[in-house]
Amino acid sequence: MSTPTSPPISPLLFSAQLYPGRALGWLVLGASLHDILTRLKTEPQRFTNLDVKYSPTEPTKSIVVIDLPANGIRLQFDAPEQRLRLIEVVDFTKNHIFIKAADNKERDLVRPSAASTPSTDNPAGPTFRHIYQRFLGPTYDGEFIDGPKTPDNAVDQYGLYVLSWPGVAFSFLMKKASYSAKKNVVDLLPSTQVPETMGIFSGDSWTQARQTLWTDVLPSLKTFTPLTKGKEVFPDEVSLIKIYGAGKLQVFRKWTDQHFWIRLGQTTPQDLVSHLGPPDAIYRKNDHKMFAHKVRTGSDALKRPDSADLKHQDDLTDTDQSSANAGSDGYHSSDDETSDDSVEGHVSGECFYNYFYHGFDVLVSKPTAPSPVPPSQEQGKNVPNIPRDWLLTANADSLVATKIVLHGNVPGSYPFNRHRRCRWEIPYLSSASDVVINSESDFPQIEESLRKEWQSIYPSEDEARKAQRGMVLNRGWGDSPGSSIEFLGGWEGDGAAAAPDAGGTAKKFDGPADSTTTLYGFPGLVFEVLKNGAVTALVLRDTLLIGGAGYMMVNG
């Protein structure tokens, strides 16, 4: 008599090993939203429907959810860092999940079925008995969580009974009247009951984990051996950039206490490669630039009295948001340079270093005059110790970092998912109060703090407001100054020959996007802001830029 065998698993079925507390297959807790979406988009036949849910009014403060209805999976990310915090299985018939025991034998959560619908012998999910006896083994009694109250307070109202193991939990539907704290789990749950969902999280139990689910520091991805085994080790991710004005940036690593400095106008391509590794791509700029020219008004209203730092206001200053995914003849990539020269940090001309997985782009060009020191930092106040080698002056013909674009990866924005989210903070705006100005702050709050910081360079409040008015742009328009690749970065139109993004495609993320943004300029800073007040990009420059009235856009 032959031994029955399991039916073959469809090659398109999402099949993954469960790693309690760490991962479901390649879906690893702590991975970035950008990484996960990029990977999902490379398998459109397996992941046929990606539904990204977020708060339209608070996209940088509320959780982001990716629903995969065709695969029975739901992924939840925190908003500030956009890291995967919770993996949920909501339909056990649309995936194949297994775990490997100490003997390295696989145990299926649900045995794959060739039938299109579950049968009585093969229900729509694992039974309590299978989970408790074979799949994970015994555990402590669970926690009963009340469901929402109804107007009539019906006695048969349901709640959820959550049964936890370290790093994984199952939720079972249960009537309130059936629950008793005096009963153990075996008495409470029928052996054939199927859970509603399974959750994978970081923590000893769901009761403990949900208290810090969105804020806890997750382990480094490098410590997850199945993900890194046999693969090249890259530098740790950049977790935070502190902006100190005058082109000084303090860059912090994720999962370590280490940091390094970038100074616009002095940091070389070799320095960038040494600290960050080779860029994901290199894009060059041509000579046809989009400039923001200062209109000569015969007034020195925008000058700060007796400040040598403000002598170059008449210089032409382009305001590229990024050269990543360029869709214009103004940029071209060099495969040879990206693979060889970029590794050593040697480039022969002005170009962008695109770090998609760090969340920013760096313009490498000849040095220009530094942006002014913020008034609150004069005489070195509120500034950490500066490395001694910063006293050296860059050669006028050398190539250095002159601009860096920090990307917010805000859900609903036009460039969503081209870069990982990069968090930043402006400490000198927080020194006078307890309010921290950072990448999650609404722009009206940022704007108010910056106006107070720079008010001394203007003769009046009215002049300051005129100089700092916003400039409205539309990324979705083709062949217009507002959508120029030089000005914004991104695609010129659907038919443009775009450069590849981090996922190897040149396709904008499918879904509704707000292509209208507003630029606001302050000395050394340009903010790109959505209608909801979220900052979608911050440009740091080594030259002075004061936006709004007094500037106009022309083709150069």
Automatic annotation (TrEMBL):
<dbReference type="InterPro" id="IPR039156">
    <property type="entry name" value="PHAF1/BROMI"/>
</dbReference>
<feature type="region of interest" description="Disordered">
    <location>
        <begin position="295"/>
        <end position="343"/>
    </location>
</feature>
<feature type="compositionally biased region" description="Basic and acidic residues">
    <location>
        <begin position="301"/>
        <end position="315"/>
    </location>
</feature>
<dbReference type="GO" id="GO:0043001">
    <property type="term" value="P:Golgi to plasma membrane protein transport"/>
</dbReference>
<dbReference type="InterPro" id="IPR005373">
    <property type="entry name" value="PHAF1"/>
</dbReference>
<dbReference type="GO" id="GO:0005802">
    <property type="term" value="C:trans-Golgi network"/>
</dbReference>
<comment type="similarity">
    <text>Belongs to the PHAF1 family.</text>
</comment>
<protein>
    <submittedName>
        <fullName>Uncharacterized protein G17B7.040</fullName>
    </submittedName>
</protein>
<dbReference type="Pfam" id="PF03676">
    <property type="entry name" value="PHAF1"/>
</dbReference>
